[in-house]
Every structure is written in structure tokens, then in C-alpha cells.
Amino acid sequence: MASIATAPGPTPPAAIEAVGINKRFGPVQANRDVTLSVAKGTIHGIIGENGAGKSTLMSILYGYYQADSGTIRVNGREVRMADSAEALSHGVGMVHQHFMLVDTFTALENIVLGVEGGALLAAGLAAARTRLEALQRDYQLDVPLDTVVGDLPVGLRQRIEILKALFRGADILILDEPTGVLTPQEADHLFRILRSLKAEGKTVILITHKLREIMDVTDAVTVMRQGTVVAEVRTAETNREALAELMVGRKVATSHTRGAAAPGAAFLTVSDLAVRDDLGVERVKGISFTVRAGEIVGIAGVSGNGQSELLEALSGIRVPSRGTITLRGTTLTPAALDARRLREAKVAHVPEDRQRMGLITAFDADESAILGYHRSSAVSGAALLKRSTIVERCRDAMQRFDVRPSNPRLRTSLFSGGNQQKIVLAREIDQDPDVLLVGQPTRGVDIGAIEFIHRRLLALRDAGKAILLVSVELEEILALADRILVMFDGHLVGEMDRSAATERRLGLMMAGIAEEAA
Amino acid sequence: MEDTLGLIVSLAAATLRVATPLILAALAGMFSERSGVVDIGLEGKMLAAAFFSASTALVTGSAWLGLCAGVASAVALAMVHGLASITYNGNQMVSGLALNVLVAGLTPLLATVWFQQAGRTPTVPNGARFLPVSLPGAEAFGTVPLLGPLYRSVVSGHNVLVYLAIAAVPLAAWILFRTRFGLRLRAVGENPHALDTAGVNVAWMRYRALAIGGVLCGFAGTYLSIGQGAGFIQDMTAGRGFLALAALIFGKWLPVPTLLACFLFAFTDAVQVRLQGVPLPGIGVIPVQFIQAIPYVLTVLLLAGFVGKAVAPKAIGLPYVKSR
Lengths: 518, 324
Prior knowledge:
Strand content of chain A: 15-25%
Low-confidence stretches of chain B: none
Strand content of chain B: under 5%
Number of strands of chain A: 20
CATH class of the largest domain in chain A: Alpha Beta
Number of strands of chain B: 0
Mean pLDDT of chain B: 91
Radius of gyration of chain A: 25 Å
Order of helices and strands of chain B: HHHHHHHHHHHHHH
Low-confidence stretches of chain A: 1-8
CATH superfamily of the largest domain in chain A: P-loop containing nucleotide triphosphate hydrolases
Oligomer: heterodimer
């Protein structure tokens, strides 16, 4: 039988379309006259800096917020989305940035929540299990259905969220910053899932601020800035630099021109360091390395391979079980390590999780800006803090580090992620440390701030300081480090110069595959 | 031998009687707190129910109408708590405490105005109370050695509210873990955002949970004034609401462990009654106040040291506000 060619009919209506969306939160216009059109069966990227209005727009498409004005069309039909249940009934499902899961429930219970299929659970759960097993096969979404979600890694939790949306019959899937919490491997798996969804005719909207992801998986991309759409382009017809410029509104250096490192004396020497976590499990298993003056040593690795414990030990937050740390010739034994003493020995620390360990979000910015150094005579008198000095110092630091808004008396939680990170960075760099420990300096930070933070770190290196950088972002390691150490299962499994490093080589080491075998 | 058996039987029967209001109130707290709403107002709801059931029973002569009034008053207070803490996102602790203070003052006042008795109702006649019922065969088997007295005086011989309280425990467990309502109830207390994004109304879930709590508090208060007691007395709940809350925490918000915790508290109370005025070897007679304090001291000790890590519903005490 001859194949019948599809007649070239009129263009099919877009899977989802938003026209003239406006949304205001108090004084902030989060969306201004936003128009978006996503073709059926494509992966469509929405890119923009933090606060550009991407998440607000998606929440409106999902019925979580109501737009002040504007219309939404699904498959060409105008719809009202009064709540998320209504969005689901139109086939729109959302995978939120912060997972909407109940940690104490099993994966299965989480997935059926809201669509249990009857007043009694048993029958509905059994029917759901059958359907889910089919979905898991179709889309490579393997998840243990009967494990409590709180015990699962984030990558799997995200698959549960995707299953949840598909189980509810979503044809249009919105993912909000899905890779922010994922390792490179997990992210790659996610992209495979997204491609298989697309192959099955589903429409995917991917919100992100990572250019690489946009270039890798999307068909078209909408760029947002300050609440408005500034461009809509086909991915094949653009490139990273053009997108970055559209996002930020000015030229951005995505890779820095940098001079060669001129390493000097050893500032930080770690020998045979072992660290246990709260449960007594050894997470760092006897490692040794040196960081010299004027160089950035990057520690690459999939998160959870002991990097966090290493940073905590070096900064005096966690007592190592054995090993020594030598600072400019002074050797410290585990018993002598505490956070205060290390700070006094000119070791500064930008922690991995700024909101939990770097700042107190309920404090004003100027208070957050002296944490850890509040005993210094510059800010503290005999009994009282020198409030006006603290405010002035903070205002000055905010200007030098481009913190916006530069208001020291604003609550820390009101700053965006990038600006919070700059507050931490300013505090630590201003102490003129010999050694700077930096963990995930740009996690959840927008591209403009990333550029700024990277430039400051390089400047510090050029000023002859020793920097130890821990990051799960390979791109970041490659952009900053002069020497790269790879950490896997508590051991250092590789060391190489920046010039010898490639993403592929590092990726294999991070996966624990020895170089000879590779 | 006879004596030991008699002691055991009477302690067990007393434990059951004392435990009843604790069980009902603790279950009330379980529904409310599992939904994410702190229920420090158990005490007030019980006290209101005790007063209104006694008053209604006195006026109408019907224990059942008394129960209805008791339940209605407790549910009404639960809805006030809901209005403050769910609809208006108020502080749940403050709202609950306010109810306790309000009821503690209002009930004696109303009693004085309505019945011209200082802070109490007149004695409720037996016809308007829930009287102990004799289960079939209690007398016939009563003479069987060992099991006879146990059946006659421990299993049989309580009023209907005692049996309802015991039956409420498996029922609550079934609702919580086997029904759609229970799944959503547990979800709303752990992560209301998950429920909201799944298209379920968070506020409506919480109101229903509070209403169930109100009904159970209504039973508990009614039991105090026209089941176990025969009339309302000022502050007759005497901290049982807080004890129930402690049992709930000790029982980690789970039905059966909470039941056991209630039994433990009730048992120490039954023992303290027994110990009053009894000289202890080597110590002599301990002042009654110290003996009476035993259940409360035990509560503090258990909660402070022996509970282990009680993991509360994660969203407890937090008003639900949509946000990122």
C-alpha cells in the first residue's frame, strides 16, 4: 500500500499560547505584556536571569497564580486557569523548581495524591501502579515506587514529579529550573527523558538560566528580561553569546581572558585528611594535596563524594578524624581546628549553601555582612556593636561588589541569590585572607552575577592568594581552576593541569572510571 | 491472691475510665495536627463541651441531647480556631490559647448566670447521664475464676462513651492510612504546597480536620460532665487537654502508640489515687499534692528524655500562604 502523504494543511495551533500577560506583585511588575507561543511536539526553552519573570509566567500558565490581564490558549482554544486542577484538566502539568512532594510518603502515594481514584486507597493504588509501570517503561522514568521519597536522591525525586504530571494526563510539561539540583549525569538522563517525551508528541517547556541546556535540547527559545519577552528565536539559528547578551542586555564574557597562574609558596597543605559525617560514615578517606599562593585549585566531582565534608573540615566546622592541615608552615592537628581559630589564621570560607551556612536570612544585610567577624575591633566595641560603622562598611562593600539594591538595612532574604552570594563573597574577601575556600560559588546565581563572581575570584588569585574551589559545575571548574583535582568516593582519583583537562576526561574520572580503563 | 486480682481489676477499670477523655482528645489533636494546625485548644474545647452538655442534659433531661450540644460547642470553637489560623493565617498557638482562656472564664460565668450556682451546674440526675452498661453475660460469667471479674469489671460496666473512645482508635487509624481523606490529611500537614499543586483545596482539608477534632473533643468533654461525672465544675478538665497533647507527641502522632501513651498516663493517675494516704514503707505518708503530681512529672520526664526523636508533621504551625 502506498503511503499517504499528509496534506500540507494550515499550520496547527500552538500547544500553548499566552497573549499579553500582565502580573504585578505589589510594586513589582513581574510580567509585562508577555506573549509566548509554543509549538506542539517541541521542546521550548524560556531563558532569563533570576527575577526576569520566567517562573511567574509559568505559574500563570499552570494556574498557580492568576494573571492581572491577558489570555491563555491551549491547542487554539481560549481557556481560563483558575487553579492547578483546571490547568491539569487542559493537559498542562508542571514540575516545580522546589519539588512539591511529601517527604514521608512513598513515590506511589505522592503520584496519586489528588487523583486517588476512589475514597478507599487500596484499589486506586493498585490501578495506579499498573499504569505507572507502563509509563516508566515508555519514558525511561525508573523510580522505586514503594520507597519513601525523603530517602531518594533529588534526581529520582524529579522523575517522580515528571511521572506525577504524566499520570495526570499532561500533554504539555513545564519544567522550572530542572537541573539546578542535578549532577551532570542526572541532567543528561533528564534530557534523554525530555527527548523521549518529545518523540511521543508531548510538548515540553524548559525554564532555565543555563545556556548550555538551551543549546543542547531545545527547538526554540524565548528570552525574558525584567518581566518582558525580549526575543523569540529558533535554537538552531542562535548561539550562546547572542543569548547571553539578550538575557543580560549587554555583552557578557562567557569565558574569561586570564593570565597564566604564577604559583608561589604552599599556603595550604592537607595531608592524609579523613572526615566522617554525622552518621559516622567516613566521607573523606585520607586525602593529601597542596594549594599554593596565586593559584586556584578546583575540586571536581559529582555532589556527595565527600566535597562538602572536606570543605567543612578545612573551615573548622567539622572535626576531622585524622590528618593534618598546614597553613603557611604552621601545622594544625584535628584538635586544634575550629572555625574561629581558622578565621584568625586568615582562612576565609564561602560555604556551599549560603542560605543555611553563609548568611542569616532574617538578619539585615549589614548584620549578615559581619557574621564570623563580629568580634573584630573594627565593628565591635567593648560590649556593643558599632552599628553606624557596620552600616557604612556594608554600604561601601555593596558598592564595590555591585550588590543591588545597595541598601545595608534591607533584610538579607529580600536579596536575590546572586546578590546574597556577593554579600558573602564581599565579607570573606574583605578580610584579606591568605586562603579562600569556596563552595559552589554560583549555584542558583544568574549569569551576570556569575561573571562578576568569577572575575573577583580571578583577581584574588592574581593578588597572590590561594583559592580552593569546590564545584559540581564542570564549566565553572574549567573556567577558573589552574589545577584540577577529581574527587570520587572520598578519594582524590585524578589531578591534572587546566590545559590538559577536557570535559570528557573529567567526566569519566568523576564517574569513578580509572583513566587506564577509559 | 484474691486481693492482688482485685487490685489489678480495679486499677485496670480505673485506667480505662481515666483514659477515655484523654484518648478522645488525643485523637482530636491527631486529626488537627496531622493537618498542620497546632491544637493547643483541646483543653478549651473539652471544657466548653463539658459545660454545654451538662447544661443541655439538665434542661432537656436527655444525655444524648447533651452530647449533641457538647459536640456542637466544641465544633463551633474549632471553627473559630480555623477562622483565625487557616483563613486569616494567624498564629495557631495564640488562637488556641485564647480559646482556652475564653472558655475557662466563660463557662463558670454562664453557669453562675444560668443556674445561680457559683461556677458550676447543679448535679445532673442519672436519667440525663451516660450510665455504665452491663455487657451481656457480665453477671453470669462474673463468677468464673480470674476471667470472670476481669470481664465483669474491666470489659463490662462502663458507659457507652468509653466503648466509643476505644472504637475510635482503629477507626481513626483506618481513616488516616486507608482512605483518600487520610492520605490528603497527612499530605496537608507535611507539605500543603504538594496538595495545592495537586488540585486539592488546602483550607477545606484543614477545616474538615478541625471539625473532626471538634466532634471528638465534644465527646471527651461530655464524658467528663455527664458520663464520669454528674455535672459541670469550674476547670473540670484540669489539664487533660494538655496531657492528651503530650500523649499525642509521645505517641508520635500515630493512633495506636498514642492510645498506649494515654493508657500509661491514665494508669499513673489510677495509681496515684490508690497511693493517696497510703503509708509507703520507710517513707511514711507522702503529702497528697506530691502524689497527685505524679502523672504530670511523668509527662515531663517522658517528653524530655524518653520519647526519642518525635517527628512532627512538617508543616505544623505554619499558615499556608502561596509563595515560591
